C-alpha cells in the first residue's frame, strides 16, 4: 500500500456458523499497528457489513481497536465511504432486523469504542476490555491527571455505571460462552439440518487446474469447466444454438438449483440478447445466478461503416443485458476464471454490479484493457518514437502488475482468490449462506435498537 504494509488490513473478516446460524465476523488484530484502523481496514469492514446486509447474516464484532490512524485521517474520516459508514451501517442493519453482537476484548479507543456501543448486545472482559473516546495518555496531557484504564473505561465501570456493556465476563472463555448464549436466544432460526442428495460431477474437479485459461487471446470451451462443477455433470442449456459465445442454462451445485451465465468467447450482439433474456427468467423464477467470467480482450477498432454499425448494435445489446443483470432481484455469485476486461466485465456482474460474492482463480486478470494488445512498434520516421516506446513499455508493465489476481484481492476488489479445484465447494457454501434468509421471520417495523 502507499502508506506501508498493513498485513490483512489489520483485521480478520469471515463467515462461520455459531449455534447452527451463519454469521459474519469482524475482528481487529491488535498485533498490527496496535489495532489502529487504516483506509484498507475500513474498506474491508464495510465489505463485511455489505455481505451481512445483502445476505441478512448475523454479525459478530470482536473489538480491540486503537481507532483511526491519525496521519491518514483525510483518507479515513470525512467521506461517505470512510470510517463513519461503519456506524451508519450498524444502525441500518439493526433497523433491518439483522442482529449484531460484540465482544470488547481489548482496548477500544475513539472510533473503536462506537462499534460495541452501537451493537445490540455487548460483552466486556474484565481487566482486558476497555472503552473510551480518549485514553489515559490524552487525559494526562489535557488535565495533568493520571487515571488508570480500568477507572477510565474498564469492564466494571461500563457494566455498572455507564451501561455501555450489557454483560460482564471475568475471562475470555466466559465472554465467548456468553456470546453463544446470546445468539441462541435471538429467535433467529438456523437452517434446517437436511441432507440434500446430490450426485458428484462425472469428471474430477482436480482437472480444473489444467483447464484454467492462460492465454487470454483465446477462450476455452466453458462447458469443460461446467462439467466439473455441476451435479452429475448435468446442464440444461438455454438457447444452445443462438449466441454461442455465451453459455446459459440451469444446473445444480450440491443440490442447489442455479442459473448459469458463462463466457464462451467475445460477448456478441446475439449472446448479449440471449443473456438478457435468461437473466430475466432467473429473476422471475427466483433462481440464484452463477456467472463464470472470462471476457475476451477487445478486438480491433472498426475500419468501415458496416463494422461500426455492428459495434453499435452490440453495444445496445450489451446495455440491455447490463440493465437486466443490475435489476435482477436474486442472489448472484461471480467467479472470474480467466480475463476480466473492459465493459464486458460489468455485463457479467463484476464488482460494480454488487454480486453477493465474487471470487477469482489465481490465473485471473482484472484490467480495463489487456496490456498484450498494445503495439510496441514505433512508426518509421517518427522523431518521438523513442519516447513513445518508452512510455508505452512503462504503461504495459504497470498494467501487467496491476491486473494480477493478487493485486486485485489485496485491494478488496473481490472477496478472495480460490483454487479452481475448490470452486464447487465454495459455491455450495455461498448458496447455503444466502439461503439462510429464507428461514427468517422479519418484523414489518423498521427502527433500530437504541441504547439508553
Q: What percent of residues are in strands?
A: 15-25%
Task: Report the structural category.
Answer: alpha/beta
User: What integer value in Å does the Rg equal?
Assistant: 25 Å
Low-pLDDT residue spans: none
Question: Percent range for helical residues?
Answer: 25-40%
- Count of DSSP strands: 16
Largest sheet features: 6 strands, mixed
- Spatial strand arrangement across the major sheet: 1-2-3-4-6-8
Q: How would you portray this structure in words?
A:
A six-stranded mixed sheet has the order 1-2-3-4-6-8, with helices on both faces. 35% of the residues lie in helices and 18% in strands. Helix 1 links the parallel strand 2 and strand 3 (58-63). The protein is an alpha/beta fold. The protein has helices at residues 39-55, 84-95, 111-118, 136-143, 149-153, 155-162, 172-184, 208-211, 223-226, 269-285, 305-327, 344-347, 385-402, 405-410, 423-435, and strands at 11-18, 21-28, 58-63, 100-104, 107-109, 121-125, 130-132, 167-169, 236-238, 246-253, 256-263, 289-293, 332-336, 339-341, 357-360, 365-367.
Amino acid at each position: 500500500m502507499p502508506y506501508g504494509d498493513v498485513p490483512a488490513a489489520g483485521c480478520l473478516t469471515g463467515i462461520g456458523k455459531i449455534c447452527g446460524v451463519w454469521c459474519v465476523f469482524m475482528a481487529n488484530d491488535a498485533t498490527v499497528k496496535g489495532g489502529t484502523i487504516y483506509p484498507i481496514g475500513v474498506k474491508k469492514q464495510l465489505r463485511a457489513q455489505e455481505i451481512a446486509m445483502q445476505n441478512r447474516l448475523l454479525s459478530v464484532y470482536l473489538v480491540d481497536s486503537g481507532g483511526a490512524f491519525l496521519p491518514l485521517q483525510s483518507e479515513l474520516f470525512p467521506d461517505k465511504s470512510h470510517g463513519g459508514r461503519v456506524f451508519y451501517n450498524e444502525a441500518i442493519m439493526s433497523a433491518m432486523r439483522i442482529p449484531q453482537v460484540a465482544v470488547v476484548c481489548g482496548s477500544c479507543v475513539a472510533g473503536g469504542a462506537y462499534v460495541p456501543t452501537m451493537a445490540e448486545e455487548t460483552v466486556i472482559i474484565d481487566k482486558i476490555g476497555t472503552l473510551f473516546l480518549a485514553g489515559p495518555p490524552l487525559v494526562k496531557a489535557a488535565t495533568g491527571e493520571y487515571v488508570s484504564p480500568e477507572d477510565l473505561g474498564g469492564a466494571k465501570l461500563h457494566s455498572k455505571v455507564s451501561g455501555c456493556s450489557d454483560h460482564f465476563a471475568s475471562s475470555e472463555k466466559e465472554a465467548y460462552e456468553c456470546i453463544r448464549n446470546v445468539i441462541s436466544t435471538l429467535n433467529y432460526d438456523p437452517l434446517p439440518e437436511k441432507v440434500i442428495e446430490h450426485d458428484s460431477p462425472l469428471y474430477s474437479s482436480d482437472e480444473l487446474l489444467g483447464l484454467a485459461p492462460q492465454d487470454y487471446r483465446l477462450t476455452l470451451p466453458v462447458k469443460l469447466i461446467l462439467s466439473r462443477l455441476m451435479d452429475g455433470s448435468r446442464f440444461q442449456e438455454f438457447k444452445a444454438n443462438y449466441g454461442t459465445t455465451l453459455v446459459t442454462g440451469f444446473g445444480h451445485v450440491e443440490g442447489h438449483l442455479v442459473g448459469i451465465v458463462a463466457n464462451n468467447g467475445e460477448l456478441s450482439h446475439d449472446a448479449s440478447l440471449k443473456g438478457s433474456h435468461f437473466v430475466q427468467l432467473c429473476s422471475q423464477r427466483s433462481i440464484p445466478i452463477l456467472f463464470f467470467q472470462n471476457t475476451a480482450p477487445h478486438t480491433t477498432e472498426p475500419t468501415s461503416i458496416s463494422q461500426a454499425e455492428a459495434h453499435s448494435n452490440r453495444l445496445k445489446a450489451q446495455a440491455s443485458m447490463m440493465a437486466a443483470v443490475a435489476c435482477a432481484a436474486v442472489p448472484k455469485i461471480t467467479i472470474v476464471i480467466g480475463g476480466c476486461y473492459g465493459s464486458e466485465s460489468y455485463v457479467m456482474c463484476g464488482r460494480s454490479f454488487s454480486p453477493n460474492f465474487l471470487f477469482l482463480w489465481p490465473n485471473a486478470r482484472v484490467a480495463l484493457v489487456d496490456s498484450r494488445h498494445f503495439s510496441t512498434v514505433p512508426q518509421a520516421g517518427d522523431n518521438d518514437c523513442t519516447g513513445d516506446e518508452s512510455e508505452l513499455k512503462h504503461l504495459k508493465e504497470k498494467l501487467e502488475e496491476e491486473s494480477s489476481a493478487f493485486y486485485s484481492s489485496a485491494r478488496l476488489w473481490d472477496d478472495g482468490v480460490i483454487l479452481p479445484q475448490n470452486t464447487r465447494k465454495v459455491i455450495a457454501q455461498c448458496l447455503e449462506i444466502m439461503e439462510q434468509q429464507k428461514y427468517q421471520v422479519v418484523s414489518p417495523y423498521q427502527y433500530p435498537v437504541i441504547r439508553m
